[in-house]
Design brief:
heterodimer, A: about 140 residues, alpha+beta, five-stranded mixed β-sheet, B: alpha+beta, 4 helices
Amino acid sequence: MPAYYPLDDVQNLVTLTVNGIDDKVVFSMRSASINYIMHIFNCSVDEAKLIIYRGLMLLTNNDFKANTAIGGGLTRLICDEYGLQGYRGHNWYIKLAIEDGDLDSISFHPVERNMRIGQRVLTVTLPTHLRPSWRPR
Amino acid sequence: MNTPKDLSNRRCGECGEKGFTLEKIHGIWNRPWKDFPVVFMNKDHFVWQCNNCKNEAVSGALDGQEDALIEGVIRSQASQFLDIIKSKSGLKIDEIAKRLGFTPNHISDIRGERKTPSYSLWSMLKLCARYPEHLKDGDVLDPKFNIEDANILLRA
C-alpha cells in the first residue's frame, strides 16, 4: 500500500515553511516531536524544527512503512508512517498527515522499538534510559 | 508571514480530537529548552492546548518567537539572581565571578542580560540567590574553604 499523502506534497509544504513563504506546518503533538528533539540535542525550538525539516526533506518513498489513523468515526484522519535511517546518529519514527492544507508533523523521534520497512530493520539507537521522562518505557 | 497561526480547529496528534485553546502558562513549563530540562515562566505565556488531553501544539514557523521569549525570561531571572546575590553577600561582581568559576566579564554580561547563562550557571545563581551566605568568606563557595574539615570527602 502506498503512502496516503504524496511525499512531494509533504516536502513542498516543508519548503514553503522553511523559506518563510507561508506557515504550512503544524506540530500537533510537540511532546513527540519538537520537545523530544530538544531533549536529545539540547537545542532551541527553531533548531529542533530545522532538524525535523531537514529529516523530512531526506525522506524517500522507500522509507514509507504503513498507513495508520488517529481519531475515530467520521473524523478519523489517515496518517503515513515512515522510518528514516541513520540521520544525525539515530533511526527515526515519523508520523505525518496533511489536513486543511497544512502538514501535521505528528511524530518525529528516534525509534522506540525495532522497525521493519520492507527488508530493512531500523534498530533502536536511543537507549531507553535516555528517552524523555514523558515517553513510555 | 507575521500573523500567528490559529490552531483552534486543529486535530490533536495525541488523542485525535479537534480543538485547541490558548492556555496561560505561568510557573513550571514542563518541556526542555537547550540544556534546561524545564523552564520556569515568571511571565505569562500562552500555548495551544488540546481541549481534551491538554497536549500542546505549535506552529511550524521559524520565527524565533518562542526562543526569544524563553531566552528573555532566563536572562532576566539570572540577572535578578545576581542582584540578590550582590546585595545580600556584599561581594563585588568580580568576587562573585571568581567564586563561581567565571570571568568577571561573563558575569557582568549575565547581569546586564546581554548573554544567556547555561543551565548549570543559572542553577548555581539560583542556589546562591537563595543561600547567599554560602558565598561569603569561609563558607563553602569560598575557594579556600577546607573541604576536609567539612567532611564532604569520601576518600583520602
